[in-house]
Amino acid sequence: MSDFQLDARGLDRFHKDLDDLIYHFPTEAKRLMRLSGNQARKIVLKKAKQSVIEDTGEYFRSIKRGKVWVDEMSGEYKVRTYSRSPHAHLLEYGHRMVGHAPEKKELGFVLGFHVFDKAAREINLIWPSILEREYNKILKKL
């Protein structure tokens, strides 16, 4: 299963605001993370459609946003994007190409597309703006 987690270092001020939000409005914090997770899913799907050559549709439909959970070690809310497809790891990291029986001769190696790695780099760049936009929507409602 291919997945990634976002790196949110350098957002101390926003993290403090988010902690205040979590303390006062836990349902809004979960909603905020779900919405930002949906944005991350859209970016991963866009990268997958740009990278993956063959389109059976199964791989694209399998890219999902996970549930929001609280990390026990840090106490932070987290969300992830993943692929449920059984062959997602082959597309992500590459695989050996092996011929048919009886020889089963190795024909080469198919390089991976590294969809989640590319998407993670893009998401880390725009993640603060996504969270800031969703946070401002919540503050407008208050």
Please tag this protein with its features.
single chain; 142 residues; alpha+beta; three-stranded antiparallel sheet
Task: Summarize the structure in words.
By secondary structure, this protein is of the alpha+beta class. It has one domain. The chain is built from five helices and seven strands, in the order E-H-H-H-E-E-E-E-H-E-E-H. The strands form three sheets. The protein has a three-stranded antiparallel β-sheet with strand order 1-5-2. It is elongated and about 65 Å long.
What is the fold's blueprint, element by element?
Elements: E1 3-4, H1 12-24, H2 26-51, H3 58-61, E2 63-65, E3 69-70, E4 77-78, E5 81-83, H4 88-93, E6 94-98, E7 106-111, H5 115-141
Antiparallel strand pairs: 1-5, 2-5, 3-4, 6-7
Helix pairs in contact: 1-2, 2-5
Q: Tell me the overall shape.
A: elongated
Mean pLDDT: 85
Radius of gyration: 19 Å
Uncertain segments of ≥5 residues (pLDDT<50)?
none
Distance between the termini: 39 Å
Q: What is the structural class?
A: alpha+beta
Estimated share of beta-strand residues: 15-25%
Tally of extended strands? 7
Strand order across the biggest sheet? Answer: 1-5-2
Number of helices: 5
Major beta sheet, specifics?
3 strands, antiparallel
- The number of distinct structural domains comes to 1
Helix and strand element order:
EHHHEEEEHEEH
The share of residues in helices is: 40-55%
